[in-house]
Amino acid sequence: MNTDRSKQLFESAKNVIPGGVNSPVRACKSVGTDPLFIEEASGPTITDADGNSYIDYVGSWGPMILGHNHPFVTEALQGVLSRGTSFGAPTDLETELSEIVIDMVPSIEMVRMVNSGTEATMSAIRLARGVTGRDKIIKFDGCYHGHADSLLVEAGSGIATLNIPGSPGVPESFVKHTLSLPYNDIKCVKKVMDEEGDKIACIILEPVAGNMGMIPPAKGFLEALRELTEKYGALLIFDEVMTGFRVAKGCAQELFNISPDLTCLGKIIGGGLPVGAYGGKKKFMEQMAPVGPVYQAGTLSGNPLAMTAGIATLTKVKEDGFYDELNKKAEYLVKGLKKSLEENDIKGSVGRVGSMFGLFFTDQNVSDFASAKTSDLDRFSKYYKGMLNEGIYLAPSQFEAGFVSAAHTYEDLDKTIEAASKVMKSL
Ligand code: KE4
């Protein structure tokens, strides 16, 4: 496959942007290749600067649940452009998107728009600390909640991929209040909460982990966190930046029937434009400035273009049967990927929650970051490169998840399964 143009563009980019990318995982370092530069995308397909097209399972890391360039979204954006791009003042569009989110997620009574998932989790944690007057927070190894200082400990996603334990530049004092525990380890959380639960402001987690590969919550794990946070007066924060409107219409909290105190959102609610959000019970959210004393702000928060893309996207996913149809496609793909492992006798596992899926090259049962790290990274990188050669565009890291969109056809899925079967033979 000719990727000369991408190579040229990468060389130029590296002169002016660190690593040539604006987000580390895009550099494809962990799979030992150079990134493709993308020219355009439409539906399930992404096309690089050399004109090569691929079936895309990254979907901009989750937002493109409708597929790329969905006419309902792009036409809405073309319409709102005529009003202007940003006012730094409230618009009806922010209320409209907030009302849709509140209607779809019962635990959210009030919501604040921000510009990224990082801002959403950072703000939710500040709110939890403000409400409880406590400093300590609990997160889980391998969960990634964006790059706010106090969260960069044992983070997943780019950190896991680049093997940066925490990160230079984050003072010890900024992370001394952050406890990071093994995901799905109820005994460990119970022990820590029994010992210092009255000092814990919140427990934050991905209800389905997607930044150490895809790992579902163990039976009873989410329930235990809900009980323990209630018992000790800590807030339970679901970071649903990835799972929100991905794994179910009402997010992971609907799927697992748990009502968190605060929820962080992003990705899909922006429909490909920069949006994050955090929300929850009014009694908590009204502690945020300008009503309450906890401060958070953002020049472009609630931007009309971003709101419009979010409104259009959520309007489509709300339609009857959207998730049933999408999840059937994901199930079909996962079954095919499982078969490709089995028929080639490759040690590995494939799983999904909704249309978010993951594949691990390990024979261990993967339930946390430690077991995820037993995966054969060399085999993963060969798989990644092999699939790319077959025209399948996957996340360039073992520690990421894949996403099926409503635009993927069964023909795309069959092509993907055939490619996987061919590539597995070569591993
Ligand atoms: P952003 O600040 O990147 O918008 O969101 C941070 C974030 C928060 N919470 C969860 C559960 C997330 O998955 C993310 C970001 N996800 C990664 C992909 N695993 C974004 C990709 C990247 O860093 O380039």
Task: Outline the structure in words.
The protein folds into two domains: 4-69 and 321-426, Alpha-Beta Complex (Aspartate Aminotransferase, domain 1); 71-317, 3-Layer(aba) Sandwich (Aspartate Aminotransferase, domain 2). It is globular. It is built from 15 helices and 14 strands. The protein has helices at 4-16, 71-81, 92-104, 117-132, 157-162, 172-175, 186-196, 221-232, 251-255, 282-285, 304-317, 322-343, 369-372, 377-389, 410-426, and strands at 38-42, 45-48, 53-56, 110-114, 136-140, 178-181, 200-205, 235-239, 262-265, 276-280, 349-353, 356-360, 392-393, 402-403. The longest helix is centred in the last third of the chain and has 22 residues, at 322-343. Strand 8, helix 9 (251-255) and strand 9 form a beta-alpha-beta unit. The chain has 427 residues and is α/β, with parallel strands linked by helices. The structure holds ligand KE4. Residues 23, 25-26, 61, 116-118, 121, 144-146, 157-158, 206, 210-211, 239, 241-242, 266, 276, 400 line the site of ligand KE4.
